[in-house]
Structure formats: C-alpha cells, structure tokens
Design brief:
With 331 residues, this protein is mostly helical. It has helices spanning 2-29, 47-58, 73-77, 115-124, 144-156, 171-178, 201-211, 214-217, 269-278, 289-292, 297-307; strands at residues 90-92, 95-97, 168-169, 238-239, 248-251, 321-323. The chain has two domains: 35-194, no CATH class; 196-331, no CATH class. The protein has eleven helices and six strands. Helix 1 packs across helix 6 (171-178).
C-alpha cells in the first residue's frame, strides 16, 4: 500500500510539474514576432480610387460591420456608414478580439502606421508590432488595386480619437499561438494586380473567398484554432450564444447547390438578389447584412453564379437559429 501511495505521489508531482512548466512556457512564448514582406502599396488621393475603397469597406468587405463601437451595432445593422473607430468585442474560446480604430488618428488609429504596415497586416496577418493577427478577416488574395483602394479610403476619413483596448487571449488562445496552431500564413500565390468587377462566376469566386469571406463563415471550423474542418461553403460553423448574437446560437447554412440540403439551391437569381437587398431578418445573426445591402447587382449576380457553380455537398443543417431554452429553427 505504501509503495502504491508513493507511486501515486510521484505521478502527481510529475504531472503537476509538467503542467506548471507548460503554463510558464506558454506565458513566455505566446506573443512571439514574425517577419513578413511589406507590399508595395501606396495610398492614392484619386477620387475614383477612394470611392472604390469606400464601396469595398462599407459593402462586400464589411469592415463597417466590425470596426465600430459596441454601442453602434444597431446603426451598422441598419446599413449606416459609421466612422471606423473600432471597439466591437468578439468573444471566442481563444479570447476576446477587438477590431482596432481604422480612422487616420495619429494617436489611436492608423495615422501611426505606414501604408506598407497596413497592407502587410491585411495580406500577411502580421501587425505593425510583428505579432500574429488572428485571422478573422483574411485579405491575403485581395488584388493590389483593391488593397490600394481600401487603404486610400481609410486615409481619407476624418480622424476619430478612440483608444481601443488590445485583444486579450485566454490560456487556450495563447497556447494555439505558442504552438503555431494559428500563425501568419499570407498569400498562397501571387494576388492579382486587379480584378475587373463583372457578373461572372469568376468574379463571384473572388468576392466569396477573398473579399466578403463567405467561405470563412459558411464552412465548419475548429472554434479553438479557426482551422477549416468541413467542406467549403457547406455550412456548419457555430456562432454564439453571446452578446453579439443576442444570446442565440446560429449555425451557418449550406450554400452549395445540393438540391436536398443547400439553402439557396432552388433560389432564382432574382430571389437571391432580393434577399440581400432585404437586409437583416433574424435579430442577432452574425451575417453582416447592414454591409451586404450596399453590394450592387453586378456583385450579387457574380456571387450567385459562383455559388451555383460549386460542387454540391450533402450536408443537412437541421436548424440555423437556436434560441436559448427554446427549440426554434428558421431559414
């Protein structure tokens, strides 16, 4: 009996020591820095370039749905083009992520950074301090022209002095950063110099994957690391319940053209466009409808045609909205 007790004692001490060492290692290593190139992007003062950037920011790229204060969410949901002063909080298992102030204020906004630093963050997930930026809105494959347009518009705004607290990571979040489960990835190839807006499926592919990030929400992902674990666009990503979703749980629907389980498989192009123009229907949904109502008909046609060109995936999402304490499903 004494021998067993001794074994258990030393087993416990060993495990406790390993856990303590792991804790210390993560706390010391999680905020490591990375190297990444600075894209050769220079902001323009051309009014047409700035207008293109404004459309992307408040439309398909939906920056205007995230880089706003918490008390302005309702206005953004109604499609208002608010100053991009930051402050919304997204709470995930890895931590609380706060989109920063994107106005050109020199103390609290992007006025402190060069065009190259901003472009590097957008394309390579490396912040001005060299640390990894969590991939909530990846723009790695955004064309040079569109990247220039967005930065040009951001520079043209009126500065707003608004200090946004830095994102805070839980031990889990620090661990995934420490062990490289989330790390800067950057472009997978050579981003195009330009993409001419038209109503083709090819342009729809660009919008869905690299601008509006439909693939990021309509694909099942590991909520701890953000890694994709499901078929692209087949739905299944879980959101909430939290303050942003009005304490409902949303599950993204299947957008592939599978006739039995695809939400929009039998929708006409007109119905698809009308749905986007309608805006928000379900209170608390994470879909940035306020921004997407600003998308034009050419963009929506392109998006519809691309989604209907995808490989059909049979993935039935039983319910897309759950209300806490109540069984409820809506589409």
């Amino acid at each position: 009996m004494k021998k067993l007790f001794k074994i258990l004692k030393w087993t416990f001490i060993s495990l406790a020591s390993i856990i303590l060492l792991l804790f210390i290692y993560v706390q010391l290593r999680w905020d490591k820095t990375f190297e990444a190139p600075y894209p050769n992007i220079v902001a323009s003062k051309d009014s047409a370039v700035i207008a293109r950037g404004k459309h992307l920011v408040y439309g398909p790229a939906h920056c205007g749905s995230c880089h706003i204060p918490m008390d302005k969410i309702a206005e953004a949901e109604n499609g208002e083009m608010l100053p991009l002063s930051g402050g919304v909080e997204f709470v995930f298992p890895p931590g609380t992520l706060r989109p920063p102030n994107l106005t050109p204020d020199k103390e609290t906004g992007i006025g402190r950074f060069t065009d190259g630093e901003i472009a590097r963050t957008m394309r390579y997930m490396v912040g001005s301090d060299g640390r990894c930026v969590f991939p909530l809105m990846p723009f790695a494959e955004l064309s040079d022209e569109d990247l220039t347009a967005i930065i040009s518009f951001l520079r043209s705004q009126d500065p707003v002095k608004h200090e946004v607290k830095k994102s805070e990571y839980t031990f889990l979040g620090k661990a995934v950063l420490t062990f490289g489960l989330v790390k800067p990835e950057g472009t997978k190839g050579n981003p195009p110099k330009s993409m001419r807006p038209d109503s083709t499926a090819e342009y729809g592919k660009y919008l869905a994957n690299y601008v509006a990030n439909c693939v990021g929400c309509h694909t099942a992902r590991d909520l701890k690391t953000g890694k994709f674990i499901g078929e692209p666009f087949a739905g299944g990503l879980i959101f909430g319940p939290d303050g942003m979703t009005k304490y409902k749980t949303f599950i993204s629907p299947n957008l592939t053209p599978e006739v039995n389980t695809g939400l929009i498989a039998e929708w006409s192009e007109t119905k698809f466009i009308d749905r986007f123009k309608q805006g928000r229907v379900h209170d608390g949904t994470p879909m940035p409808w306020g921004s997407f109502t600003h998308m034009d008909e050419i963009e929506l046609k392109a998006l519809y045609r691309y989604l209907h060109s995808l490989k059909p995936v049979n993935n039935k999402i039983e319910k897309v909205v759950y209300v806490v304490g109540e069984q409820m499903a809506e589409k």
